[in-house]
Amino acid sequence: MAQIPPGQLATYGQIAELIGVWGAARQVGWALRRLPLPSPIPWHRVVNARGQISFTPSREGSDWIQRELLLAEGIPVDAAGRLPLARHRWQPR
DNA sequence: ACATTGACCTGAG
DNA sequence: GCTCAGGCCAATG
Question: Which band of pLDDT confidence, cut at 50, 70 and 90, is reported for residue A11?
């Protein structure tokens, strides 16, 4: 995830595929859940395949922090957490 | 050892 | 756009 350039987005499935484990998207989510909050890695550039932030009570507000961080990078996010994934999709190489 | 639970994905209607 | 069903795999009870 540290390779994701600023202003670009990746999906959970994309990360899983990148590390060679197809279908491990949930474990990517698990890994993010146990991250310390502030973290040196750009966890906020990871969203789900539907192009929106994954809101859930178990995050206890970190989802809203994510929204702010994305806005700070110039990515528009509406109140529902939806964002233009198609335009900011990161192409790994 | 079994069952449930997720910051999820894909494909078929 | 939408819902539904099936899959994935680590952690937790």
Answer: very high
| CA separation for the pair A37, A44 (Å, rounded) | 11
Asked whether residue A59's C-beta has any atom of DNA/RNA strand B within 7 A, the reply is: yes
Nucleic acid strand C: bases within 7 A of protein CB: 7-11
The CATH number for A81's domain is: 1.10.10.10
A93 occurs within a structural domain: no
Which residue has 């990871």 as its token pair? A46
Footprint of strand C on the protein (CB under 7 A): A 21, 23-27, 30
Inside any domain, residue A1: no
Average pLDDT over residues A21-43: 89
The answer to whether residue A2 is domain-embedded is no
